[in-house]
Amino acid sequence: VAAFLRDPSSGRVYRRGKLIGKGAFSHCYKLTDMSTSAVFALKVVPRRGAGHLCPGGKVEREITLHSCLRHRNIVAFHGHFADRDHVYMVLEYCSRQSLAHVLKARHTLTEPEVRYYLRGLVSGLRYLHQRHIVHRDLKPSNFFLNKNMEVKIGDLGLAARVGPGGHCHRVLCGTPNFQAPEVISRNGHSCQSDIWALGCIMYMVLTGTPPFMAAPLSEMYQNIRDGHYPEPAHLSPNARHLIARLLAPNPGERPSLDHLLEDDFFTQGFTPDRLPPHSCHSPPIFTIPLPLGRLFQKAGQLLLSQCRPPCEYITHYPCPHPQRYISRGKQFLCVLSLPRQRAGHRGVLEERPPLTSAAPCSGLPVQEVSQPLGYGVRIQNLAANESVSTEPEGSQKLEVEVAIRNLQLCLDAGPSAIRNPPGEQQPVIWALKWVDYSSKYGFGYQLSDGSSGVLLRDGTHMALRSPGGQVCYMPDRGKLETFTLRDVPRLLGTKLAVLRLFACHMQQQLRKEGAPPMPTLPARPSLCLLRFLASKQALLLLFNNGTVQVSLTGVQAHLVLSGEGEELLLTHWEQGHPGTSYSLGILRSHGCTLATRQLLHHALCML
Ligand SMILES: Nc1ncnc2c1ncn2[C@@H]1O[C@H](COP(=O)(O)OP(=O)(O)OP(=O)(O)O)[C@@H](O)[C@H]1O
C-alpha cells in the first residue's frame, strides 16, 4: 500500500501510517489527512480477493450499507476509493482498539463496565435494526473503542438488509460461537439473531469464555439449539437472568432492544457514564467502602457545578457533624449553601454566595467556616432569637405535624404491656439501607419495594423506581417529573449518576448481607424522603406520605409508622425476625411494650 494515497473524488491526499492490524480479508492502517491532520483508520481490501468491486459483492455491500450510517455507537464511515490493486475505506479511528483487546488483557469485566458497554451497543444496534440492517457478526473484536472509551460497532462486512419477513438469506455466516439457533438451522438471520449474539457476548465478557464452545462443532450446535450452556453461578442473579432472556432458543422470547435497558440488570445496578482508559488493562474501581471514594468525589464536584444557583435549605438536622457547629455551648442552626463555582474549585470563603434578604433567617448574626469540598457553611446563632421561625415557605411543617400526631396517637393508644400484642405481616414500604453522604452529595436510601432514592444537598429529590427503572425527579415540593432512564434530561445526568452510585453501593451491601428478595409492592412514583434526622441512638426518616421510620443505631431494630387515621400501622423489625405490624385498634386494646414506647418517644423528641 502506497505511503501517500489520493482520493480522486474529493481530491484529498492522505499519508498512510503504521499497520494497526490484519483481518481475514483486510489490513488496517492509521491514516492522516494531509490538509487537516485529521486521523482516520484505513481499511484496505485487496482487489484480487474479496475486494472485487462487483455489484452485490461483499465489499460493495459493506460500502453501500456502512456509508449511509451516522451514529455515535457505529464506527463512522468517512469515504472510500479504489486503485488498481486495492479498495480503501476511510473510517473513524478508534485508538483504543476493540473490546477483544480489552478482554485479552482483562479476561473478564465487572458488571458496571458490562452495563456501560451494552448501553452503547444496544443504542448502535437499535439504530441498525431501525434501518432493517442486521449485523450478523457481532463479537468483541468488532466493538471498537475510541480515545474516550466510547464503544462503536464496526466491521459491517457481513451486515445485510432484512427482507419483508424480517429475515435475510438463509446462509450460515458469522462466528460459530455466536450463531443463534435459527441461523444454524438455516432459518435465516433476523434482528433477534443479533440479540442472541449480545447474550453470548454478555456471558463471555462476564465469565471469560463464550457460553457455547464445545468441540466437535456438531455438539456445540446441539447445545445452541437447546440453549444449554454452563450456568454462570458466580454472576449476580440479575446478570444470569438477563443472559437467560437473551439466550432464549425461541427468537420471539428474546427481549427487544427497545426494552432491554429496562431489565433489572440495568435498572438495579450502577452504570458509569464513562470508563477510565486504564480499564483497558485493569478493573476500574467503582465501589469503595464509605466514603465512596474518588468516583463519588468526581460526581460530586460535577454535581456542585451543575446544581441550580445557590439554594439554601435548613438542616433541622441533616448536618453530618453537628459537634463541628456547636460553639461555646450555644445552640446553632446550620445553613448549608452551594456556592456558584466551577467543578474542582476548592476556595470557599472568597466564593461564598451573598446572603439574600429572602434567606430564611436573615438578620441573625452569621459566622462562617470553610469546608474542604468547597461549600460555604453559615452558622446562625439561634440563641440570639430562639423564637424565630425556621420554616421556609412551602416547608415540611405539615408532614412533621402529621407525623408527630401519629406518634402521639400510638403512645396514647394504650398502656404499656409486657410483650407486644399479636401482630400480622403486612407489605410495608420502608428503607432497608441508606448512605449518609449529605456532607457532600446527599442522603441515599434503598426501599423495601426495590426502588432507591436520594435527597440531594440542593433539596431536590430523585428516585429510581422498580420495576421498570422509571426516574422520578422532584425539583420542588409538589412538583414531580418522571422520565424513562433513556429520556432523563442531560442536566439531570449527574444527579442520576449520584443516585446510581448510591443504589449500586446499597444493593451490593444488601447482597453481601444476604437480604431476602424484595416483595413486589405497587409503585409509588411520588414517594420521597423529606428529611432524615440523626441522633446518637437512632436515625429517623420522614417520607412525604407521612411514613416515619426510626432505626436504632448499632442494633438491628426498626419501627415504621405508616398509613393514617384508623388505618395507622405500626411495624416493628428486630434482628432475625420478619416485620410484625400492629393496627391502631390492636394497640388500643393491648398496648405496646415499654421498649416500643421508648422508641416512639425518642422519635417524637427528635421531630
Ligand atoms: N476503525 C478502526 N480503528 C482502529 N482500529 C481498527 C479499526 N478497524 C479495524 N481496526 C483494527 O484493525 C485490525 C483489522 O481489522 P479488520 O476489521 O480488518 O479485521 P478483523 O475484524 O480483525 O477480522 P475479520 O475481518 O476477519 O473479522 C483489528 O485489529 C482491528 O482492531
TrEMBL record:
Record EC number: 2.7.11.21
CDD domains, alphabetized: POLO_box_1, STKc_PLK
SMART domains hit by this protein: S_TKc
Binding-site positions, ATP: 43
Subcellular compartments: Cytoplasm; Nucleus, Nucleolus
GO BP term (any one): mitotic spindle organization
Entry GO MF terms: ATP binding; protein serine/threonine kinase activity
InterPro entries: Kinase-like_dom_sf, POLO_box_1, POLO_box_dom, POLO_box_dom_sf, Prot_kinase_dom, Protein_kinase_ATP_BS, Ser/Thr_kinase_AS
Transmembrane segments: none
Chain ranges of the POLO box domain: 430-508, 529-607
Any one of the GO CC terms: spindle pole
Pfam families: Pkinase (PF00069), POLO_box (PF00659)
Record has Transferase as a keyword: yes
Gene3D superfamilies named in the record: Phosphorylase Kinase, domain 1, POLO box domain, Transferase(Phosphotransferase) domain 1
Designated name of the protein: Serine/threonine-protein kinase PLK
Organism: Otolemur garnettii
Lineage: Eukaryota, Metazoa, Chordata, Craniata, Vertebrata
